[in-house]
Design goal:
The protein has 202 residues and is α/β, with parallel strands linked by helices. The strands form 2 sheets. It has a 5-stranded parallel β-sheet with strand order 2-5-1-6-7, with helices on both faces. A two-stranded antiparallel sheet has the order 3-4. Helix 3 packs across helix 6 and helix 4 packs antiparallel against helix 6.
Length: 202
């Protein structure tokens, strides 16, 4: 069996304030290769000329400040216009998908983790063999959003309700880790899942 055929690609996802970044930091600290699609997205916004030109065509020149895309201006436009948001997603997601795929192909690790907030929503699960979802109780999620983003409760709920329901992600994923307890509890669950994945014979 070749190195590539033995490679296991594991998607990590979870809704806003679920603790996904806590999990991925733990994996990085343990020495695993984690591909962070948020970093890839930032790179596309900062240095992809094709994306910049196409986005100006879509949203207008006002989104450019100091010759760079102003993400705050982009957000204020698209979140008030569903059609423009859909067009933005159709533009950026294939670019991120291709860059993520290339990074996977370049990896020589036996197990590679891919951190994707919209793993199932935009079809990034096509790149993965197994998927882990980080789950959290609604009240804890609301509390974290209020503390982290200075939201009022209604704002926190609006952000949560704008995403794919957590229960749906759990149904689609292969493994669920709960982030309702301590960090150590989360880490322990993750370690067990990784051992299960490592034990799977291709």
């Amino acid at each position: 069996m070749s190195q590539m055929s033995a490679q296991k690609i594991v998607g990590i996802t979870g809704n806003i304030a679920s603790g996904k970044s806590t999990l991925t930091k733990y994996l990085i600290d343990k020495g695993y290769h984690v591909i962070d699609t948020d970093i890839i997205t930032k790179d596309v916004y900062n240095s992809n000329t094709y994306f910049k030109d196409e986005l100006v065509k879509l949203l207008g020149k006002d989104i450019i400040v100091d010759n760079k895309i102003d993400k705050t201006k982009v957000s204020s436009i698209v979140f008030g216009d569903k059609s423009k948001l859909e067009k933005l997603n159709k533009l950026i997601h294939p670019i991120i998908f291709d860059k993520t795929n290339k990074e996977i192909e370049l990896s020589i690790e036996n197990i590679v983790f891919v951190d994707v907030p919209l793993l199932f929503e935009v079809g990034f699960d096509k790149l993965t063999n197994y998927n882990i979802v980080v789950s959290i109780d609604l009240e804890k999620q609301i509390e974290r959003l209020i503390n982290r983003n200075n939201f009022i409760r209604e704002e926190a709920l609006a952000r949560i309700n704008a995403q794919m329901p957590q229960a749906q992600k759990i149904d689609l994923a292969d493994y669920e880790v709960s982030n309702n307890g301590s960090r150590e509890d989360l880490y322990e669950q993750v370690d067990k899942v990784i051992e299960k994945i490592k034990d799977i014979k291709e």
